[in-house]
């Protein structure tokens, strides 16, 4: 029987004998779709302590029994075995309270003290902010006032969801606010992309295989493309997206994290600070885009009405809740450079958008062409660059494209691809990103979480772009639903290069 790699990997990481996870905003969509299913899977894999208590904190009136029944119903819809579900939901508790009411936190403290024979408050506590970002500051202040950051009775940690700020100033203010209550080592800024198996494998792929290190630099790599494409629109989240846009929602976190893992130097050790130190170095090496160069290096656009999967869909400006004169971008393409010896002169092309033809996240490494072509033109008409593609989702895997002679009597050369897929290669069910990240937060491993300086440095890179856009008037370019974004994005490439077809 195949062993479970997640369980095997955690054998040396001892979770405390028992602890309490408090999910603030437990009635929200994140809890229903991700947190509870991920916790259930950890329970099913026997990676949670049997005496774990999960306490949901929200404003709605609800009993423990109601909360358990609701979560059980959600899990049963995922075809989870009823016996396991009923055992798991027995861990759940519900605490009603208003996030702005200090009495609610005092009542929570009393509730925890009453659990497990009066020892609940002495257990390690993990707080998860599954609330709108506008509530973060208020919750953090009240947790501090109620003494929940004091580690004299056991460790205390807090997980904060993205977006962590909406620009450099707000990120700095939020960091200052949370650091008044919790120490940096207690803070886990989460980006679920870092929990994806293929993203984690980037470190192994790069630094455990000697074949790639000699060619992972400007001498052999022509350029890098990172794509995060979504088929969905804003899905009723106009109030959120109008204030955010895709640059803040995807580029500042997901895309920049992928860029860091591709471009970073080998860490001095496989520990949280060593890995995050190297990621910060990458962000600090990114060339600042001057205000005058924003329009040459960054393209933004909105989707217009079009057809996707034989369904006619409205444009962004026709979506419910979107202002008719909105300049919020749903597509962004960028060209960035790194000022260091490994990557000097190598462009990194980033693109992300909504209502694109397919849902895919990919990192594509384009290697330079052979320095001299011996083969006549008629043989090379279909020749393309050698490309190493790291597929993050939905088909997790790695592929390498290279040129080969076509079998037969003709002297034709065509590209072929070698594919590796995680599902087929290991025959194991891949854990959800939140499973890994929740478990890491419980065991105190912050490698896959974002540090304050990392967050602020990423915002510094984008700040000139945001300021340039604030000073612009008029409409944005448009791209029809079901296409690969604004045609203007092709101008980011020199002659002879183009966006990869996915």
Name some characteristics of this structure.
502 residues; alpha/beta; Rossmann fold; Dihydrodipicolinate Reductase, domain 2; 2 domains; nine-stranded mixed sheet; 14 helices; disordered N terminus
What does this protein structure show overall?
The chain has 502 residues and is an alpha/beta fold. The protein folds into 2 domains: 5-161, 3-Layer(aba) Sandwich (Rossmann fold); 194-371 and 454-492, 2-Layer Sandwich (Dihydrodipicolinate Reductase, domain 2). It is built from 14 helices and 17 strands. Strand 15 and strand 16 (413-421) form a beta hairpin. Helix 2 packs across helix 13 and helix 7 (168-179) packs antiparallel against helix 14 (452-470). The model is unreliable at 1-14 (pLDDT under 50).
Low-confidence stretches: 1-14
Q: What overall geometry do the principal axes of the alpha carbons give?
A: globular
| Through-space gap between termini | 36 Å
CATH topology heading of the largest domain: Dihydrodipicolinate Reductase, domain 2
Mean pLDDT: 89
Domains (count): 2
Beta-strand content estimate: 15-25%
As a whole number of angstroms, the C-alpha radius of gyration is: 24 Å
Structural class: alpha/beta
Number of strands: 17
Helix content: 25-40%
Q: Describe the main β-sheet briefly.
A: 9 strands, mixed
CATH architecture of the largest domain: 2-Layer Sandwich
Count of separate DSSP helical elements: 14
Q: For this structure, what is the CATH class of the largest domain? A: Alpha Beta
Biggest β-sheet: strands ordered side by side in the sheet: 16-15-14-13-7-12-11-8-17
In CATH terms, the superfamily of the largest domain is Dihydrodipicolinate Reductase, domain 2
């Amino acid at each position: 029987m195949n062993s479970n790699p997640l369980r095997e990997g955690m054998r040396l990481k001892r979770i405390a004998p028992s602890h309490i996870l408090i999910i603030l905003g437990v009635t929200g969509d994140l809890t229903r779709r991700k947190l509870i299913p991920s916790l259930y899977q950890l329970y099913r894999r026997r990676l949670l302590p049997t005496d774990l208590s999960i306490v949901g904190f929200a404003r709605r009136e609800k009993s423990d029994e109601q909360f358990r029944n609701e979560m059980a119903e959600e899990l049963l819809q995922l075809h989870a075995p009823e016996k396991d579900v009923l055992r798991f939901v027995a861990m759940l508790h519900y605490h009603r309270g208003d996030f702005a009411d200090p009495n609610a936190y005092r009542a929570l403290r009393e509730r925890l003290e009453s659990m497990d024979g009066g020892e609940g408050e002495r257990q390690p506590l993990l707080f998860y902010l599954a609330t709108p970002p506008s509530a973060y500051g208020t919750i953090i202040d009240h947790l501090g006032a109620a003494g929940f950051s004091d580690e004299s009775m056991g460790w205390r940690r807090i997980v904060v969801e993205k977006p962590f700020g909406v620009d450099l100033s707000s990120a700095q203010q939020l960091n200052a606010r949370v650091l008044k209550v919790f120490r940096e080592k207690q803070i886990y800024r989460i980006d679920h992309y870092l929990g994806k198996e293929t993203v984690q494998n980037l470190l192994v792929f790069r630094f455990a295989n000697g074949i790639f290190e000699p060619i992972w630099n400007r001498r052999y790599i022509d350029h890098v493309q990172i794509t995060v494409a979504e088929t969905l629109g804003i899905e009723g989240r106009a109030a959120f997206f109008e204030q955010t846009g895709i640059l803040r929602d995807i580029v500042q976190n997901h895309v920049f994290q992928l860029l860091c893992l591709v471009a970073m130097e080998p860490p001095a050790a496989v520990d949280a600070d060593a890995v995050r130190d190297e990621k910060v170095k990458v962000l600090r090496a990114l060339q600042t885009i001057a205000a005058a160069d924003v329009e040459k290096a960054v393209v933004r656009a909105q989707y217009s009405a079009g057809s996707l999967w034989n369904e006619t869909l409205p444009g962004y400006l026709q979506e419910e809740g979107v202002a008719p004169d909105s300049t919020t971008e749903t597509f962004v393409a960028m060209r960035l450079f790194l000022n260091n010896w490994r990557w000097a002169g190598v462009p990194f092309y980033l693109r992300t958008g909504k209502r694109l033809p397919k849902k895919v996240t990919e990192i594509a490494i384009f290697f330079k062409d052979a320095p001299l072509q011996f083969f006549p033109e008629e043989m090379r008409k279909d020749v393309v660059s050698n490309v190493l593609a790291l597929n993050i989702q939905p088909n997790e895997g790695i592929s390498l494209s290279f040129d080969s002679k076509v079998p037969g009597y003709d002297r034709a050369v065509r590209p072929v691809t070698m594919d590796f897929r995680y599902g087929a290669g290991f025959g194991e069910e891949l854990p959800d990103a939140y499973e890994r990240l929740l478990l890491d937060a419980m065991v105190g491993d912050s490698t896959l979480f974002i540090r304050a300086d990392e967050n602020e440095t990423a915002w510094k890179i984008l700040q000139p772009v945001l300021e340039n856009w604030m000073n612009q008037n008029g409409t944005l370019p448009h791209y029809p639903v079901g296409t690969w974004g604004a045609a203007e994005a092709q101008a980011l490439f020199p002659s002879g290069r183009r966006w990869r077809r996915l």
